[in-house]
Amino acid sequence: MLSCTYSPRSPVHSAKSSENVGGLAGIGVGDTGMWTGKFASVLLVSFFRASRADPRRPHLGQRWRAPRASPLVLGHRGDSANHPENTLAALKGAMNAGADGVELDVRLCGSSELLVFHDEDLQRLCGDPRRIDDLSLQEIADVRVGGEPIPTLLEVLNALPLAVVNIELKRHPMSQALALVTACAQAVTESRSLGRVIISSFDPRLLLMLRVLEPNLPRALLFAEEQGLPLRRGWLATTLSACAVHPEHVLVSGTRMSRWRRRGYRVHTWTVDDPVRIAELARIGVHAIICNDPGAAIASLA
Predict the structure, then answer these.
(1) Per residue in 41-78, is it b (16+ CB within 10 Å) or e — as a string?
(2) Which domains does the chain have, with CATH numbers?
C-alpha cells in the first residue's frame, strides 16, 4: 500500500492550479491537438448539434434554489483545511461542519473509472510521479492520501445523500473527453443525484459536449482572473446554456453581480477563506461561496 503525505496548505490548495486555466486562454488557436484523432468528428458534431439544441437551461434542483438569507457554503475539496482534500473524510467533514455541500474534482483513471482527485499525478500529495490515468482502479485502491483512500465519484455521491455537489471536470486530453462526460453522467444517474449536482469546468469544450449529450445536467462555467478576456468575463456561458457562472472571487463586484443576475445566472464563487471578503460577497449577493474551511466561513456569516 502506498501511503501519501498530505499538507492542507500546499501551494495549489487555496486557488485553482494553473493547469486548469493556463492552456485555455487561447482555445481554438494554440490547442491543435483538439482537432486530431477520432475525437475531432465528435467535437464537430457537438458544435453542430449545439447550434440546433434547445437553448433553455436545465433547472437546478430545489436544494440549490431555496430562498435563504445568506449564501450556500460549499467545502472546497471538502473541509480541506482540516482533512486530506477530496477524500471522504474531508467531504463528510464539510457536512459535519455545517456546509450545505461540497466542491470536488474528478478525473479518469487508467481503467476509465471516475476518481475524486485534483491533480494529474500523485506527486504533490504522495511524492509519487505516477499519473492517475496510468493507474487502474485496483492500483489506486492501494494509494492513501493522509491515510485516506481515493474515492470514486459514485462512492462520494452515495455517501453524501444530503449534500449539494459541485462536480468539477478536470481538463483531459480531448481523446478522453467523451469517456469523462459519459462516466460523470452515469455516476449521477446511478446515485439518483440529478437534483443536487451541478457540473462545472474551466474547459468550455467539455461543457459543450455535456450540453449536447446530457442536456438535463446543470452546467456552470468556471473562470479565473488569469484567463483571457472572453473566458474571464464568462461570455461563453450563454452558448453553453449554463445555469451558473463560477468566477474566481476577485472577479466578483457589485456591477458584475448585477449583470449576471439580470442574465439569469446563479453565481458560485471560489476560493474564499478571508472572513471580511466572505461577508462582502454575501452583501453583494452571491449565491454560493466555495471555501477551504466551511466551519469558519459559516461563523463569519453568522
Answers:
(1) ebbeebeeebeeeeeebbebeebbeeeeeebbbbbbbb
(2) 25-54+61-301 (3.20.20.190)
